[in-house]
Amino acid sequence: MGLSALLFLLVCVACSEDTASLSPDLNRSGIKVRTVSFGAQGTTTELPAEKKIAHLAAYLFSGNALVRSFPDLVIGSDSICRIDAEDETGKLYFLANTTSDVREQIYEQMPEEEFLRLTIQNQATGNAPQIMSGTMDLAPSAMGTTVHLQRGIARIDLEVASKSVAVNEVTIAHVYQAGYLLPQDDIQAVPDAQQESLVRTFDAAQTSNVPGLFYLYEQQNSQLAVKAKVTINGVTQILQTSLPQRIVRNFVYTLRIKGTGAKLEAEILTNQWEAGDQEEGAVNDRVSVDLQSLPANVTCEGNRIYISHVGNNFSFRLHKQEAVNVQISSSDSHFQVTPMADPASFQVVAHHLSPGVSEKWVHLDVYPVNEPDVRIGRISLIQQANPTELTGALTFDENWRCDFDRYIDGELGVFRPQSGKEIRVETDDMPWLKVYPEEGNRYRVVAGWKPNDPDADGRTQEGKIIICNTDGSEPEEFFVTRQYWGLPVVNVNGIWWCKYNLRGNVKRFEDQILVANDPAAGRDLGEYLTNCTDDEFLHILGDQYQGGNPDGLPLRHDGSSFYYEGMKASAGNFGTIDPTVMAPDGFEIPDYDDYRFFTANNNFNLGYGSNAFNNNLGQRLTFDIVERDATFLGASYGPVNFYDFNYNDTHFVLCGLGHQYSVDIGNIAKMFIIFGTYGNSGSTWLIEGSARATGTGNWYKFAGQNSTKTRTLRCVKTPVEYIIE
User: Fold this and answer.
1) Distance, C-alpha 628 to centroid of its chain
2) Region 240-245 average pLDDT
3) What class is the 14-152 domain?
4) What share of the chain is helix, strand, coil (3-state, %, to 5)?
5) pLDDT tens across 404-434, in order?
6) Element (H, E) at 484
7) CATH architecture of residue range(s) 287-383
8) How far apart are the C-alpha atoms of 294 and 292, rounded to whole Å?
9) CB 386 within 8 A of CB 396
10) Which SS3 state, helix, strand or coil, does residue 293 take?
11) Residue 115: what are its φ and ψ, rounded to 5°?
12) Which strands form 635-647's sheet, in the order they lie side by side?
């Protein structure tokens, strides 16, 4: 849906300076005169007509009365203005580009207070003239100093910000046609000044920017309605908004028109103002917020009502001076504004916002009863964003929930709440969430892991994260859930090894041997493997894998030969693939150091039977090699070994089916186990086994193997900070 917008940007003037020049160089000392230029966003945008000084006069006041006038000053090309006022002191006022009517109002001994209240009035409807004023304290030492002339008017620029928009006409209604020559203590309109409409019609539709579209006297005016007749993609529309109530001298106001599509004015305005662009002040003096109706913890600035991120439930009223219609923009179920029985009253219900969620806006658009297509203003209700900073994996939806829908542990997120706030957690059963406070009011929320928990069967765990005051008051509650899975593990020298090889899809815990269905639970695994059936043995040995393919390659027999179903001619490299990719969540593929614990060196003959050795770290291990003659899938597979290592009375068994080295059926090295190993693209750990009858031994090696050959996958637990007791 195409949207367009018309809005005002209030831009402070840059105090860049240009020298006023009227006459040839007079080559004499005096006062230097400079004009303070209009500027927009720090860039001088003075137009040629704004540089001209048609008339310059100065007026010296002493003792609060006019003592001398300098009616027709001349400025040389060097910007020097000669004033013959030797030994005179007082306050010297400069006025530029005034009319003769104004100058005729000034008389000898005129009180300074009356002079400061001088006004200028347009003789006909139109732009304000380029009046300027400045002041300085006159003393003998003042000669050679500079006086800065400030413009007594504001400038309105037109910016056409979209290629699809062409502007035909712009009107500003209710513009005061008189203004004060000099700045007043408070910005105000001249009493009884006439109000007229300024109209700028373009002979050809304007598609580029127009600086100096209008010039207005400084004024306080809540009726400055702006209407633009524009063509958007060939469709003519009327856009309407309001200028700020305070029009300040020497300021530039930019009327920016943007748009795509061809929509009614109300729709055009809605999208652009959604972001809270720089429309300031009340909608107009006909519709405003009844401040007395707002609760103490809700603030109002102009046409914007601000609600805290913690939410609120309140009602408020509008002051309506005439018959208007108020339309409420769409809102979600957690931030709603609804009309009440009293047509001027509205009910607001706002729930708390999660960290990381942008502020929310609901708009009350105001239309004259007889002009339903012309919006005259907007009141915006803004629920401010949650000030708590949050980084990490945690993101909350509109219902304040974060459902990971998988197993996850480790650091979930880092919170940095406001001073005086803290983070707490609650859980539904075991304490699987934990908070670690740190310096700088940072709180790390960490999910824990519990080894060998039979309840880790995929059930959902829920926890609550609470942002609250240090005394627990004003809680903001957020909910986090995960699937709770676990695999049987063995802790060998501080590394948590999975007890069994992977099978099925590496990411599906459901495909693996879980703690709850561990066939050797409470028993010595080596003893179980020695005595179990061949079918049970095959189940323990697991599937084969190729890098990048998460699905296991099960052993098959075609009536004459064994093969692994699904093997491809090429595969990814386990040595370079992220070690967590080919493992269940929370686990990873072991690296060189993990496997080297179980060998004396990178090419070590374990021999047969039972023996002992010192590994590279000097640790003493014993082991038993058990050979079984297996029948799998109704066919004789031949001898299969498993390797039962013992370190400090902790047993850990390595086993596996032999790898397949090409896609041809039957090309399986039945006793040659290649383990998936991370960290080296060319070499991997393996056990080159053989039957005792051959006498060649069982070689535990780190050696080169191509990536096509299938691998046995045994995982280790990814290091975790919080282990649940």
Assistant:
1) 61
2) 81
3) mainly beta
4) 10, 45, 45
5) 999 999 999 999 999 999 999 999 889 999 9
6) strand 476-485
7) Sandwich (2.60)
8) 6
9) no
10) helix
11) -60, -40
12) 610-614, 620-632, 635-647, 650-655
| Distance (Å, whole) CA 143 – CA 92 | 12
In the chain, the amino acid numbered 39 is: G
Task: Give bridge partners of residue 346 from the DSSP assignment.
Answer: 316, 339
**Is 546's pLDDT higher than 70?**
yes
Task: Dump the DSSP string for 96-129.
Answer: ES--HHHHHT--TT-BHHHHHT-EEE-SSSSPPP
pLDDT in tens, 488-523: 999 999 999 999 999 999 999 999 999 999 999 999
Strands (E), 243-329: 246-247, 252-259, 287-289, 299-301, 304-307, 312-320, 324-328
What are the start and end residues of each CATH 2.60.40.2580 domain in the chain?
Answer: 14-152
Q: How far is CA 170 from CA 223, 230, 231, 260, 387, in A?
A: 16, 9, 12, 19, 41
Whole-number Å distance between alpha carbons of 716 and 626: 24
For residue 550, CA distances in Å to 382, 502, 503, 553, 718 come to 48, 10, 10, 9, 18
Cα(195)–Cα(176) distance, integer angstroms: 4
Number of residues assigned to the chain: 725
632's tokens: 């799998």
CA distance 160 to 166: 8
At 90, the amino acid letter reads G
**Hey, what amino acid is at 242?**
S
Decide if domain 4-10+154-271 falls under CATH 3.30.379.
no
Report domain 389-485's class: mainly beta
Task: Please say whether the beta carbons of 630 and 637 come within 8 A.
Answer: yes
Strand, helix or coil for residue 81: strand
Q: For residue 460, what are the CA distances in angstroms to 404, 406, 485?
A: 10, 9, 9
Other CB atoms within 10 Å distance of the CB of residue 541: 23
Is residue 258 very low, low, confident or very high in pLDDT (cuts 50, 70, 90)? low
